Every structure is written in structure tokens, then in C-alpha cells.
Amino acid sequence: MNLKKRMKTFVGLCLLSGGLFAQNVCVSTPNTSLLLSAPEGGELRILYYGQKLTDADLRTFEGERGIDAAYPVYGLTCITETALSVQHADGNMTLQMAVENVATTDADNATETTVRLKDKVYPFYINVCYRAYKDVDIIEAWTEITNGEKKPVTLNQFASAYLPIRRGEVWLSHLHGSWANEGRLVQEPLVSGMKVIKNKDGARNSHTDHAEVMFSLDGQPRENQGRVIGAALCYGGNYKLRIDTHDDEYHHFFAGINEDNSAYHLEKGETFVTPQLALTYSDEGLSGASRNFHRWGREYKLANGDKLRKILLNSWEGVYFDINQEGMDQMMADIASMGGELFVMDDGWFGDKYPRNKDNSSLGDWVVDQRKLPEGIEGLLADAKKHGIEFGIWIEPEMTNTVSELYEQHPEWIIKAPQREPVLGRGGTQLVLDLSNPEVQDFVFGVVDNLMTKYPEIDYIKWDANMPISNHGSQYLPADKQSHLYIEYHRGFAKVCDRIRAKYPDLTIQACASGGGRANWGILPWFDEFWVSDDTDALQRVYMQWGTSYFFPAIAMASHISAAPNHQTFRTIPLKYRIDVAMSGRLGMEIQPKNMTDEEKALCKNAIAEYKQIRPIVQLGDLYRLVSPYDKLGLASLMYVTPEKDKAVFYWWKTEHFVNQHLPRVVMAGLDPDKLYKVHELNRIDNVPLSCEGKVYSGAYLMANGLEIPYNHIVDYHKQNDYASRVLYLEAVK
Ligand code: DGJ
């Protein structure tokens, strides 16, 4: 590349760059910079990632060699972890990549930088790509790997991106869990050795570990102080995050598709595009990094991320499989009378030859069970209209059961190993459809398309997925591509979802996968929200939603008021607390309203009305986590603040209960110190107002001192219990 072209390329990237640092490429967002050294014919190396660099700072990097290769490849250097490892057709296991050129494209919202690398011997290419947003502090990194050789090259490892993180007292925050206990926060110091966070479910990927992490660079993680690097792999399939700490000054972080059992044979002329790794940096602690992910997510990733979500009732915990016309009508009437806006009919509505009465049949037979719903979906839509609400429906389109008409007609559509009886999933009969097969893709698209064509008034779809990929084997892929199954499954899934979104952009779709199995930024561009967990117990939800909020905004976190005793933990939690927890996410209900007392219904009606007032703050505002339930201080607290800092909602939940307990007074965050805020308690049940009710406090005072919150509710004796929670609405006054 000639110098003139290079200078032109770099002018858009580095302020003052010009010819001065002609080999350095600076990728910047409003407050962050990623600096690379990209000498033509030399190695692409990473110089820096963190707080935005000034022109003076940039100058100091001139001529620096950098920390490490920006995308380390295997072969000539063998002793460290690498991002990419391949085997060429002639058996050669090595790569040696050199910079060929750098290109930038400038779009409205982001600048894309592509560094093209070529192997020094083979016609093998890597585009190392970065998209830096202009209005949010996120840089997306990914690679495009092209085989220009005459024969296939096998990719044995193919990470999306690599980042060295300077050693010191670095702590890792990540999410770990299991079904009904998703999104638990784990915080640990990074020590020597290898930390691997991975998934092998095949179909879903966030029940156990999550594909997102945060690194606190200044010792023990803090919510509102300290430097933090965050990373989120945007991929719905198997992933692997590696943090290798060996004998040098850096923790070496790699993230990408999990290559286990997935060796990829890259054909001549083919390009393999890795998923994006979204990187962020904040000096406002973990909550600051979360706000960056949330803003970027709402603006650029989440389907309809700028539209407020409806308040719904889902039928699952209310009636389970016991679906019938009368029951659905009653639930619709009840949610409408409480001010709800949407009713979702869950599992159990379909199947003709094999009615779906339990979880052991009928998936794939997406026809209404006329015995349960004689007036069909039309009847339900008419009921919804009568009650003035919208209607939604549950499907699980990627799956079938051995007991189904679909399986009888298309046994060749299931994922199954040749010559072996398949291992079966849920209900002892469930199987996963082979989405690598275009016929299956058409079928799955058709499940949504047929419903929406016949019943265009359907407003919401709950898309479930209740089985991992077992039985490694595609009846569609050729023998030499069997190791592509996991990757092709997700390519097929993406094709289906792209088609659905192209045709139905406004349809609300929830990603559910046995609860929280699909909370990932690779999934959410097609989905409006996800079901956080099948566990609706409010106390456990405080912990799960806390963890989930590290990477995902409240607007995407479906959070429902359910029955007491809770159906998963059997814990009896008062309705006020259940409401206050559900109201910190996308509020809904998951309960049989006909079993509620009039007083309970009135409480919910009031809560729904109040949630409507604060909905824009919760769903579109900035999150400040204040006291973590994981710190075991006896309470948890967080707040949402509008970007203008004129309104805020403060949540306070007690997490344990003892007499004469001494709870910390919670200091607020995110307010304007110079503004005055009037305090009003929402969902009040106490006989007397709080002492702060109606009073006006400065933002500075609230952020230095917080408010005194009584440990118990002042209610009649027979209403007292061991839970307390508060929701305070703060509005700036002149
Ligand atoms: C699992 C989901 O997580 C539940 O909410 C419910 O939809 C059931 N599947 C239905 O089978």
C-alpha cells in the first residue's frame, strides 16, 4: 500500500495521525480507544485498549512494538494460546500472517476498520475487523478467514478476537448457574493458569455459564468506581472463553465459537466469518460497563430495543397444559381488569392426532387442538379483542417428539447419529430438528409464517427450546462435514430468524429456552426479550436478575409476578415483594388470577398502573447497581435514572430478616447533584407514609447519604411478615 493511501486511511482513525504514526491504527468510541500497530508486511499487534487516547498519548506510542499479536495464530510460536489454528491441505500446521492493507468505512453510527492479513507463503487471508460506535462505548471485533488455496484448509481453532489484559489485581466477574438458577454472579481474582468458560449445549447457551465477562482492573470489583473491561460474545451456539495467565505481564483473553467437535473444513474460496465480540471499557465500575452494554444493546442489537414492552399475563404457571377456551377467556378478562395489555397462551394448545397434554408429544404438529379450543385461535383473538388486550402464543419450532405426526412424516429431519437409536430429551420423546437442512429451515420459518399469515393479529410469540443437541449427527450434511453440525445449526437458525424478522419486524418475540437458556447478544437481534429463568421465586430472582443485569438491560428481562408458595422453591413471599422484584424488569404476571383475592388483585392493579408511569425509566433508563445481594449485607438495591437525570426509580429489597438487624443505609448514584428530587413511594402498603414521602432532596445529598428506609412495613399485625421491599420514584422539581 502506498503512503498516500495509508495516510488517508488513518486520518479518519487517529486525530492528528497523518503521516506521524502511519503504522498505528487507532479505533475509537466517544470515551475509549483501541490502538494497533499495523506495519505493511509486518505483524498486526495490539498496543493498547482502554480510556480514550489524546493526540499527545497517541504520539507516545509511535514506534512501539506493542504487547502481542492482535490475532495470535498457531504454528511458528507454539507455547502460548492462540486465536487461530489451521491445517493446510499439504499437512502444514503453521500460519505466518503479515499486514497487507488497512481499510476503513465510515457509516452514520460507526466506523469499521478492516486489517487484511495474508500468510507469508500460502494464499490464506484473515480480515481482522473492528466496528467502533460513535455514540456508545462499544467496539465489536471479529474476523473473516478466507481460504485462497487450491484445497480445503481445516480450521481447528477460530476465535473471534483476542485481548491482552495487564496483570495486577485483576478480578473476573461472570455468570454461572443452571436451570432455574441462571445468571448467578461469580467474582474471582484472576490467578495463574487457564480459566475456561464454555458451553456445549449446541442449541442454547446461557443456562450454565454465560458468554460475557467483566474484568475489574483495580482490585476487588466495585459497582460505581474503578476501571472495567467488559466483553460479550454475540453468538447463540457453543462458545469458549479462555483467559490464559502464564509467565508474562498479561492475562490473555480469547473468545469465540467452541471448536470442540467442530473442526471446520474451509473450502477453496470460502470465507468463514466469526461471531462478534463486543468490547467495552468504563472507569465508572461494573455498573458503568453494564450501562455501555445496555445502551448499545437497546440501540443496535435488541429487536425493537427502543419500544416500550407491554405488561402481560402468561398462562404457564396458572394452568400449565390445561388449556381450554373458557380458561383462556377468564385469564384474559382478569389481566385486562388489572390493567394488563397482553395475554400469552403457553404450551398445550396444539396437536390433532397427538394432543399436547403433557411434555411427551406433539411438537411439530402446530395445529390447534380443537377439543380444547373449539373456536380455534380465531376465538381467542376475538376474546382478546373483547377484553381490549393483545394476544400472544407459545411455540417450540426447532423441536419434535417421537410421538408426533411430524416425526412420522419426516424422521430424516431430526438430528441423529447414523446407525444408532437417538437419545431422547424432555418427556422421554423429544428430539431436535436439523436446522442445517434447508427443508427444516423452511419448516421452522413456516411455523411462524403460517401462524402470522392466518392470524395477523397475533402480537407476541414465546419461542421456546427445551432440549440440547444430543446425538451428534446430521442426516443432511455429508460425512466429511459432520463436524460442522453445531455451526450449521446456528447458521440455519440465523437464516430462519432473518426471514422472520424481514417479514415481521414488529412482532414481539421472546427467546425462552427452558427458562434462561438464550440470554445472549447473538440471539437478541431477532428477539425482543428473554425469559430470565423458569424460577419465578422473587428472592431468588433478586440474585438472578442482578447477575443478568451485568450484560442485559431491564427491557429485555421478562420478570413475572407468580403465586405463593412459589412453584419452584415453595417459598411463601408476600405479594408486595413479588411485585417490587418483577417491577424492576419487564413486568408481567405468571399466575392464575382466579386464585387471587380481591385485595391481591387490587394491589396488582395499582402496581400495573404505577409501572406504566415508570416504564420508560426502567426499560430505557440507565442502571446503577447500589448494594449487591451477593455481598450478604441483608439487602439488595439498585436504581434506574433517565438519561436527562430528571426522573429515577430506586429499588430496595431485604434479602434476609433478623430482629434488631443493622442494615446499611443505601447511597444513591447516577443523579444530578445540582438537581432537587421529590420522593414518592410506589406500591405503598404501609398504614403511614415514609418520612421521606413528598420531601425534596438534592441529588448531591442523596448520592452522599441516601435515605433512611425502615426495615419493616408498618401494617396491621396480621399482615406482618419477614419480607420488606420499597420502590421510590424520584422526580426533579424546580
Ligand atoms: C419451558 C419454559 O421455560 C416455560 O416457561 C414453559 O413455557 C414451558 N417450557 C412449557 O413447556
Give the uncertain stretches in residue-range form: 1-21
Oligomer: single chain
Largest sheet features: 10 strands, antiparallel
Helix content: 10-25%
- In round numbers, the mean pLDDT is 96
* Gyration radius from CA atoms, angstroms: 27 Å
How many helical elements?
Answer: 13
Distance between the termini: 60 Å
Beta strand count: 36
Helix- and strand-based class? alpha+beta
| Shape estimate | globular
Query: What ligands can be seen in this structure?
Result: (2R,3S,4R,5S)-2-(hydroxymethyl)piperidine-3,4,5-triol
Main attributes?
single chain, 734 residues, alpha+beta, 10-stranded antiparallel beta sheet, 8-stranded parallel barrel, 13 helices, disordered N terminus, binds (2R,3S,4R,5S)-2-(hydroxymethyl)piperidine-3,4,5-triol
Explained architecture:
Helices cover 21% and strands 30% of the residues. The protein is of the alpha+beta class. Strands 6, 7, 8, 9, 11, 12, 14, 15, 19 and 20 form a 10-stranded antiparallel sheet that branches. It has an 8-stranded parallel barrel with strand order 21-22-23-26-27-28-29-30, surrounded by 5 helices. Strands 5, 10, 13, 16, 17 and 18 form a 6-stranded antiparallel sheet that branches. Helix 5 runs parallel beside helix 6. It is globular and about 80 Å long. The protein starts with a helix and ends with a strand. 53% of the residues are buried. Residues 1-21 have low confidence and may be disordered. Residues 316, 346-347, 359, 394, 464, 466, 512, 514-515, 531, 534 line the site of (2R,3S,4R,5S)-2-(hydroxymethyl)piperidine-3,4,5-triol.
